[in-house]
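A quick aside before the break. I want you to see a complete sequence-to-structure record at least once, exactly as it would be stored in a machine-readable document. Don't worry about memorizing anything.
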Amino acid sequence: MLNHANILTAAEMQLAEQTLIDQGTSVQELMRKAGQGAAQMIWRLSNDMPTLVLCGPGNNGGDGYVIAQWLLEKGVEVRVAAPVEPKTEAAKQAKSLWRGETLDWNEAQPAQQFVDCLFGTGLTREIGDECFDPFLRLFAGAKKRLAIDLPSGIESDHGILLNAVPAFDTTIALGAFKPSHLLEPARSLMGNLVGVDIGIDAESKCAFVQKPKLHAPSSRDHKYSRGLVAVVAGEMAGAAQLAAMAAQKSGAGYVKIYAPTGFQTPQPSIVVETFSDNGELQQKLSDSRIAALVLGPGMGRDARALSLLAPALAVETSLVIDADALTVAGSNLAAMLQARSAQTVATPHHGEFAHIFPGGNGQKLVDSRKLAMEADATVLLKGSDTVIADPDGQAAISSMSCPWLSTAGTGDVLAGIVASRLARGLSGYMAACEGQWLHSRAARLAGPAFTPEMLIDQLPATVQECL
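That is the input. The structure line, written in tokens, reads:
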């Protein structure tokens, strides 16, 4: 199985393979490891199911010939279909070792199992109809469909579909996971995602969001050492309450809501302090005991909400800026955050991100990194393929998504969780990564069709798993 640490772009993967080659491992040996490793997975998944392997002209096609030969030797009824002859030396050698039948591309008939080795990592342009139409015909006639490395028609670095790619049952990554294994819309077409280790050991500035290792309070801890989280409330009290309750149940030692007069406290253990004007708010937020601040949930989007930004941003306390605060700041957000020296995490969803970063090109990983650099802040771009980026270009992608999180209020919960991690003194990037993992895991524990309150109730159990 693959190491779930680093995620490699096409260029990084090519460099990592070249490093192994320079150290004495031949291209043919790498292809043998990749192909036989993938074949063993296919065998475990479907045993002796009649199989058609589609082999392209490059090294992904070479992997396909290795897969086909290994399955043939296991007694599987397996055939190869190829639109053209291999073009790389390694692929030519792999084909020379193939002892089974190679079918005419346009006349080949579907088999129960379809294995796609047409094009893998590195594809940058659309596959022509003369090749892709037979591909779709053979795909449609199969009962089980597997892609080797990446489904053909997917660009490897940004989750972009170059063709109208159908949905696979399983994708077997070779050597390392690539960004498109986790980024939408490509991720939804991958099916079950597994990987084959071929000895790649490369550094990357993109990684998986990892399960955090948390620590229980010591005998010397008290409510302030565990972190005081302050939540600024606006016109919609419920959102601020959710953020506050989430911060409390994910480990903060003390939670306060700073709100206009008349705010109703969600529960006795959360203290509410009211303010009459923005000057008083800034004074209250200047309390040196506050370890992290949440700004945005339920704040509103009118002129009064806009006026709350300045006093909150002026306080040099670790900050989670979310929801309405992002919308109100708009395209000025980067300039506003760049002036801060304290740790800052911005947590937009797709709509908010488009508003605050109109210069994006739709490439989630690239755009998140650009905004993080411009704002000198951590960006947590929410979604089923959540991306977290810091100003230095480090990024992480969440591999643990839950579609039931697509409901109102769950973003407020995430803001509170991230604030609880900031309150423990973590960097913005680490707080965002830990908060994202806890949020996703709590959603899994909550089961289907939960409310934000039910999600919050799962946080103590989630924290317990990480101790």
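Two observations worth writing down. The chain has two domains: 10-204, 228-465. The first strand starts at residue 51 and ends at 55. We'll return to this after the break.
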